[in-house]
């Protein structure tokens, strides 16, 4: 029994590994041939496949807290980047890009903002059917050029360069055409509905929140936007992004200027109201002086008012120190206790003066109240004048709350 078991182990130890791998070795050239075929096919695909490139740009959005009407009424909100993304891709902005770069016009089937050898402008194209585009064939002639529609009909003959021509194609599409320069003898022009061009641009351009990897950000904070576009022509992609960025930037300036103008209008109305209030308070003060000619009411009242004003200023400063010390020391600290005692002393003195004022004749009480009203109105008036200067500068400024950090640049081949 033991001997048979040992023979089995000896048989296992002497398995012929060479015999096991011999079929693989004999077919190795077949395996290599298959791998080579796949490599050749991969190289052919890479060589003939359309190369797609990605361009990117970086934009910073800031919150102009001091340059809008909300700063006057004390309302400031955090930056909502989702709102700015929607504004960036708004139809009006993209329509401006389409018009600037003539993205609704394809020349020789090339969707590019500029084609060498021709400068063409097409205005007021009116599509009366459900088609999204129409084609024109531009043929250069000795005196200018001819225009042939997609059915071979001559619709414009001997048009002059630089002169606006109007026409109607055989399928009922009306348009105005002006060609400023023409080098080649023949061009194929395709005109796309502007709405369709806007939709294509909206789907191709991507805008998203950008958070640097080196910074840990919680929630939805941040102020950076990343703009990207993928296309087989990297220069085309960069031109589209830079132009859209410029439209976004210019609209921001226009919006800030409009908000500043609105704020100036609001301030002007408020200043006019304050002028009337101050004038009425001054008239009231003068009447009080005339009513009390037996004693110097204005002198006595002004002395008391100056004392009250000084105490109010002191209490305000003490409260600021108390807030600062509460962060630095505990309530048992002598410095903190001293501040509290000073505040209580000043508040006590203020209460005494207010009690003294309440015991004064009615004429003197009215006089003190009038002094207080005039001073408050004059302080608000001065503050609004300063704000008006700030908004006037903002309205005339060419700076918005948008900053282009990086212009469009090549990132990678997709």
Give a concise summary.
The chain is an alpha+beta fold.
Written overview of the protein:
With 414 residues, the protein is an alpha+beta fold. Helix content is 54%, strand content 21%. The relative contact order is 0.13. The protein has helices at 2-13, 17-26, 28-48, 81-88, 91-101, 194-204, 234-291, 297-328, 334-358, 362-396, and strands at 53-61, 105-107, 118-126, 133-141, 144-149, 154-159, 165-168, 174-182, 186-192, 205-209, 224-231, 402-413. The model is unreliable at 65-69, 71-76 and 216-221 (pLDDT under 50). The longest helix has 58 residues, at 234-291.
Q: Strand order within the widest sheet?
A: 2-9-4-5-6
The helix-strand sequence is HHHEHHEEEEEEEEHEEHHHHE
Describe the global form: elongated
**Biggest β-sheet description:** 5 strands, antiparallel
Helix vs. strand class: alpha+beta
Report the span from N to C terminus.
Answer: 69 Å
Q: Any low-confidence stretches, pLDDT <50, length ≥5?
A: 65-69, 71-76, 216-221
Portion of residues in beta strands equals 15-25%
Helix content: 40-55%
How many helices? The count is 10
Keywords:
about 425 residues
Write the layout of secondary structure elements.
Layout lengths: L1 H12 L3 H10 L1 H21 L4 E9 L19 H8 L2 H11 L3 E3 L10 E9 L6 E9 L2 E6 L4 E6 L5 E4 L5 E9 L3 E7 L1 H11 E5 L14 E8 L2 H58 L5 H32 L5 H25 L3 H35 L5 E12 L1
Antiparallel strand pairs: 1-11, 1-12, 2-9, 3-8, 4-5, 4-9, 5-6, 7-8, 10-11
